[in-house]
Design brief:
mainly alpha; Serine Threonine Protein Phosphatase 5, Tetratricopeptide repeat; Alpha-Beta Plaits; 5-stranded antiparallel sheet; two-stranded antiparallel ribbon; 7 strands; 64% helix; flat; mRNA processing; SART3 protein; TPR-like_helical_dom_sf; RNA-binding; nucleus
C-alpha cells in the first residue's frame, strides 16, 4: 500500500519522458521488494502509457512477461494479470485490422496472423496454470477462438483444474485465517515442497513473507531453499538482503548472507562492507558477536594461500583476529558485561591457524598463554587442547611442560591430566622424568583427595542441619494441627448442644443446606435472602414478608416445597427457542417478550430465569404452540431490545448433542461474499449499502457487534 501510494503520487507529477524514467526506476525498486500482484499490474498499465515511444510495445510486453514470471502463478490474484495482458494484445489486434472494405496486404495479413497467435498462446499458457475462476477463462477462450481448442490445451486445462482442487483447501484456509496466518502458510509451503515445482515454492514463500516479514525462521527456511535448490545469484542475494533488512537482530541471517556472497564470488570489498553492517546491526546477546566474527574470520581464512610464507590476505586475516579479540574485550564486554567467548574460541582458532597452517608455534604458544590467563587454567579440557596442539606441531619438551602445569592447576578433572602425563613419560620419558611425574601426580592427587574429603564433611554437616530443620518444621506443623483439632472439637460440642435444642427442624435444615451454620435463633436469615426465586406457570413467585422469628425457620424449610419448580422439558425443544443477552434491568420480561414473539405465532409460555435475589439474569425460554413459529422466531436473532442485540438460538440439550454449535460459519470459499474491515465505528448499515449497491444487487449486510451492541 505504501509503495502504491508513493508510485501514484510520482505518476501524477511525471509529465515528461525523463520523469517517466524515474517512475520506471521506482517501479523496479517496488517489484524487487515483495511479491505483489497489484504493483506489477500498476507497472504494466503505466508502461502502456509510453506505448508511443520507440520500442514502447516491446517494453510493455517485457514488463507483462516479467510480471507473469513473478506472480502469474498466484492462485487467487494471477488471473487479473493474464487478463490485462490479453486485453493489451487484443487492443494491438484492433489497430492492426484493415479498414472496412479494403483488402489487407500480405504484410498486414502476416501481422494479423502473428497477433492472433500471440493471443492464442496467452490463452493456452493461462489455461495450463491452476488459477481461481479458470472455468470462466476457458469459456472465454471457446467463445473467442474461431477454431476448436487443441487437444493438448484441453489436457493441460484438465490437469490444472485437478491441481487447483488440491490447492483450494490451502487457499480457503488462508482466506478464513486471521493475520499473520503463519501456520496456514507453513502448511501450504509443506504441500508445495512435496509437489516440488520451484516456481510455485518460491511464490508461496514470497506470499508468506509479505505478511510475516519479521519472522526470522521463515526467512531462514526460504534462504536455505534458495541456496540449496535454485542457486540463482541475483535471486539468492536479493532474498538474503531483504532478510537482514527485515530482521537485522538475527545473527544467523547475516551469517547465511556472508556465506551466500562468498558462494557467488561477490567482490571482497562488498563482503567486508556487509560484515561491518552486521556488526552495527545491534544483536541482542554477546554470543551473537562471537558467531558473526567467527563466520567472517572463516571467510578470510579461506582466501589465504598458505603455500606462500607471507601474503596480503594472511596479514588481513591476522589483523582481523587481533581486531576480533579486541572488539569482544572492549565493545561487547562494555555492553553486555561479558565477552560472549569465555572459552576464547576465537583465540584458539587463531592459535590453530598459526600452528597448523603457518608453522608458527611461537605465536600459537603466546596465544595459549593468553587464553590460560583468562580463567581457563582450571579446566582439564583446555590444557589437553593445548597439549594436543603441541603434540601435533610442537615438541616433547613443551608437551611435558604443559602437562606439569596442567597437573598443578586443573581442578575439575585432575586424574585425567595426571594419567595423560604418566602416559607421555611411559612412552617417551627417562627414568628421572618418570619419577618426577609419579611424585608430582601423587602429591597433587593426595591434596585433591584431602580437599574433597573436607568438602564432603562440610556437605554432610549442612545436610544434617537441613534434616534437623525439616524435622523441627514437621513437629511444629503436627502441634499446630493438634491444637486446631482440639479447638474444633470444643466448638463441635457447643454446636451439638444447640442442635439438640432445635430438634427435628434443625436436623431437616442441616440435611437440606449442609453449608449453612446456625448461630442461634436470633441470627436466622430472612427467607427472601436465602431463597431461590423460581418461576412457575403463573409467573414469578415473590418472597413473603418476614414473620415472627419463631415461625421463620419453619416457613423457610417448607417454602421450597410449596413453590412448583419449573424445569425445561427437552421433549419440547422443537417448539422452544433460547433467548439470551437481554438487559438485566428489564422489568416484566414475560410481558415485553410475549409482545415481541407473538408476531411469530401463538406463545404458550415464557420462562425467564432469575437469580436467588430475584433479579433477572438476562435469558429465558420461549415456548410456542407450533414448530414453524419457533423457526420463524430465529429470524429475530440480533434484534436490538432495550439497546442490546438479543440472541435467539434453537433450544438443544448439549448433553445429548455435544457437537451442536449455535453459530456455524462457512469454512469454504464464498464467492458472493465480501469481508470489509477498517470501517469507522460511526458507519451505519445504510451508508455501507449505498456504497456497495453501485456494484450490483446487495442481498444482505451484517455489521458485526459485540455483546453490548457496539460495532466492532
Amino acid at each position: 500500500e505504501i509503495w502504491l501510494d508513493w508510485l501514484k503520487d510520482e505518476i501524477k507529477m511525471a509529465s515528461e519522458s525523463s520523469e517517466r524514467e524515474k517512475v520506471y526506476e521506482l517501479f523496479e525498486r517496488a517489484v524487487k521488494d515483495y511479491i505483489c500482484p497489484e504493483i506489477w499490474l500498476e507497472y504494466a498499465q503505466y508502461s502502456i502509457g509510453g506505448i508511443g515511444q520507440e520500442g514502447g510495445i516491446e517494453k510493455v510486453r517485457s514488463i507483462f512477461e516479467r510480471a507473469l514470471t513473478a506472480v502469474g502463478l498466484h492462485v487467487t490474484k494471477g488471473t487479473a494479470l493474464w487478463e490485462a495482458y490479453r486485453e493489451f494484445e487484443n487492443a494491438i489486434l484492433e489497430t492492426a485490422q484493415p479498414a472496412p472494405g479494403s483488402v489487407p496486404s500480405p504484410e498486414q495479413q502476416q501481422m494479423l496472423c502473428s497477433q492472433l497467435e500471440k493471443i492464442h498462446t496467452l490463452f493456452r499458457r493461462q489455461l495450463g496454470i491452476p488459477l481461481l475462476d479458470m472455468e470462466a477463462s476457458y469459456a472465454e477462450y471457446e467463445e473467442w477462438s474461431e477454431d476448436p481448442i487443441p487437444e493438448t490445451t484441453i489436457k493441460n486445462y484438465k490437469k490444472a483444474l485437478q491441481q487447483l482442487e488440491k490447492c483450494k483447501p490451502y487457499e480457503e484456509a488462508l482466506l478464513g485465517a486471521e493475520t499473520p496466518k503463519l501456520a496456514e502458510y507453513q502448511a501450504y509451503i509443506d504441500f508445495e515442497m512435496k509437489a516440488g515445482d520451484p516456481a510455485r515454492i518460491q511464490l508461496i514463500y514470497e506470499r508468506a513473507l509479505a505478511e510475516n516479514c519479521l519472522v526470522p525462521d521463515l526467512w531462514a527456511r526460504y534462504n536455505q531453499y534458495l541456496d540449496r535448490q535454485l542457486k540463482v545469484k541475483e535471486l539468492v542475494l536479493s532474498a538474503h538482503d531483504r532478510a537482514v533488512r527485515n530482521c537485522p537482530w538475527t545473527v544467523g541471517l547475516w551469517i547465511r548472507y556472508l556465506l551466500a556472497m562468498e558462494r557467488h564470488r561477490v567482490d571482497h570489498g562488498i563482503i567486508s562492507e556487509m560484515f561491518e553492517k552486521a556488526l552495527n546491526a545491534g544483536f541482542i546477546q554477546a554470543t551473537d558477536y562471537v558467531e558473526i566474527w567467527q563466520a567472517y574470520l572463516d571467510y578470510l581464512r579461506r582466501r589465504v594461500d598458505f603455500t606462500q610464507d607471507s601474503s596480503k590476505e594472511l596479514e588481513e586475516l591476522r589483523s582481523a583476529f587481533a581486531r576480533a579479540v579486541e572488539y569482544l574485550k572492549q565493545e561487547v564486554e562494555e555492553r553486555f558485561s561479558e565477552s560472549g567467548d569465555p572459552s576464547c574460541t576465537i583465540m584458539q582458532n587463531w592459535a590453530r591457524v598459526e600452528a597448523r597452517l603457518c608453522n608458527n608455534m611461537q605465536k600459537a604458544r603466546e596465544l595459549w598463554d593468553n587464553i590460560m590467563t583468562k580463567g581457563n587454567a582450571k579446566y582439564a579440557n583446555m590444557w589437553l587442547e593445548y597439549y594436543n596442539l603441541e603434540r601435533a606441531h610442537g615438541d616433547t619438551q613443551h608437551c611435558r611442560k604443559a602437562l606439569h602445569r596442567a597437573v598443578q592447576c586443573t581442578s575439575d578433572y585432575p586424574e585425567h591430566v595426571c594419567e595423560v602425563l604418566l602416559t607421555l613419560e611411559r612412552i617417551e620419558g627417562t627414568l628421572e622424568d618418570w619419577d618426577a611425574a609419579v611424585q608430582k601426580t601423587e602429591n597433587r592427587l593426595a591434596r585433591v583427595n584431602e580437599q574433597r574429603a573436607k568438602a564432603a564433611e562440610k556437605e554432610a554437616a549442612l545436610a544434617k542441619q537441613e534434616e534437623e530443620k525439616a524435622e523441627q518444621r514437621k513437629q511444629a506443623r503436627a502441634e499446630k494441627k493438634a491444637s486446631k483439632k482440639a479447638k474444633k472439637n470444643k466448638v463441635g460440642d457447643k454446636r451439638k448442644a444447640d442442635d439438640d435444642d432445635e430438634g427435628e427442624w434443625g436436623q431437616e435444615e442441616e440435611a437440606e443446606q449442609p453449608s449453612k451454620r446456625h448461630k442461634g435463633d436470633g441470627d436466622a436469615l430472612h427467607p427472601e435472602e436465602d431463597m431461590e426465586v423460581e418461576t412457575g406457570l403463573f409467573g414469578r413467585i415473590g418472597p413473603e414478608k418476614p414473620d415472627h422469628p419463631e415461625n421463620q425457620k419453619e416457613k423457610a424449610s417448607t417454602s421450597r416445597k410449596d413453590v412448583p419448580k419449573v424445569f425445561h422439558d427437552s421433549s419440547k425443544d422443537s417448539v422452544t427457542v433460547f433467548v439470551s443477552n437481554l438487559s438485566y434491568t428489564m422489568s416484566d420480561p414475560e410481558v415485553k417478550l410475549k409482545e415481541l414473539f407473538e408476531s411469530c405465532g401463538e406463545v404458550v409460555q415464557i420462562r425467564p430465569v432469575f437469580s436467588n435475589k430475584g433479579t433477572f439474569r438476562g435469558y429465558c425460554y420461549v415456548e410456542f404452540k407450533e414448530e414453524k413459529s419457533a423457526l420463524q422466531a430465529l429470524g429475530l436473532d440480533r434484534k436490538v431490545v432495550e439497546g442490546r442485540p438479543m440472541f435467539v438460538s434453537p433450544c438443544v440439550d448439549k448433553n445429548k448433542n455435544p457437537d451442536f454449535k449455535v453459530f456455524r460459519y462457512s469454512t469454504t470459499l464464498e464467492k458472493h461474499k465480501l469481508f470489509i474491515s477498517g470501517l469507522p465505528f460511526s458507519c451505519t448499515k445504510e451508508e455501507l449499502e449505498e456504497v456497495c449497491k453501485a456494484h450490483g444487487n446487495v442481498k444482505d449486510i451484517r455489521l458485526v457487534t459485540n455483546r453490548a451492541g457496539k460495532p466492532k
